[in-house]
Amino acid sequence: MSKAFLAATLLCAASHTASSAELTALETRWLGAALPVLDYARSLALPIDIIVQPQARPNDVPMAMGFDGGRCKLVLSLRGNPDAEAQLAGVPHGAQGELIEAMAAHEIGHCWRYAQGAWHALPAGFVEVGQETAADPDLLAASKAMRETRREEAYADMVALAWTRRHHPGDYARVYDWLAGLRRDQPVAGSGHDTRAWVALARDGARFGAAARPFEDAAPLWREGLLVEK
Questions:
Q1: How confident is the model over 183-195, as pLDDT tens digits?
Q2: Which residues contact 53 (CB under 8 A, 6 or more apart)?
Q3: Residue 65 pLDDT exceeds 90
Q4: Residue 124, exposed/middle/buried by CB under 10 A (0-12, 13-18, 19+)?
Q5: Which residue from 40, 71, 113, 144 has the highest number of Cβ atoms inside 10 Å of its Cβ?
Q6: Which region holds residue 22: left if phi is over 0, alpha if psi is between -120 and 50, else beta?
Q7: Per-residue pLDDT tens for 139-170?
Q8: Smallest Cα–Cα separation from 157: which of 174, 173, 180, 187?
Q9: Of the candidates 118, 96, 99, 98, which has an alpha carbon nearest to the alpha carbon of residue 109?
Q10: Residue 38 to residue 40: CA distance in whole angstroms
Q11: Going from the N-terminus, what domains does the chain have, and what CATH number goes with each?
């Protein structure tokens, strides 16, 4: 049974909002690349649904994780999205699969945190030092929200790299350089996706251990990054 067929079967078994049961070639390719991660998530009984948008909205990213009703929602926004593969620009078609798989692992990292009830929570025993202040309470709230988002994105990045190290060790350096390049291009330092402090710690894939799950492998470097983030 082909990966494309398995991906289509998986999608049809999930909830989705596509106007047709038929997947586009692009959707089939992305789901086929993400299939190992999705199968792994299913083996853990993570509460995840796959949603294919019939039409991408402005500024939609191609793959994202949302939460609703206690379940994770992996949303693909590829149809009508002019930037659907912008993150893969310059990467040969045959070398894109591991990158899409890493994106999926990143999103499953988000789902794991949510399912564990740890969303926006710091690791056990971690003590926040210092106190941020601002004259405008709205600015203070926005800064706190951005910091929480950045930390969740950093954890998911570590999961993506831990997954790659375990499942594609020969491609680790290539996937790492691609992710580091994406995170290097930050219009605003300290923004929600500015995970450079964490990504820098993971340059050597050997820093990830051999825990039973990539979520546990990601935890030590994520915690270390919390100590050095700006």
A1: 998 777 778 889 9
A2: 17, 18, 60, 75, 76, 77, 78, 79
A3: yes
A4: exposed
A5: 113
A6: beta
A7: 667 668 889 999 999 999 999 999 999 999 99
A8: 180
A9: 118
A10: 5
A11: 3-109 (3.30.2010), 135-228 (no CATH)
pLDDT in tens, 200-211: 999 999 999 888
Whether 74 shows a pLDDT value over 70: the answer reads: yes
Q: How many CB atoms lie within 10 A of CB 132?
A: 10
Residue 203 and residue 189: Cα distance in Å, rounded?
20
Half-sphere exposure in the Cβ direction for 46 (13 Å, CA): 29
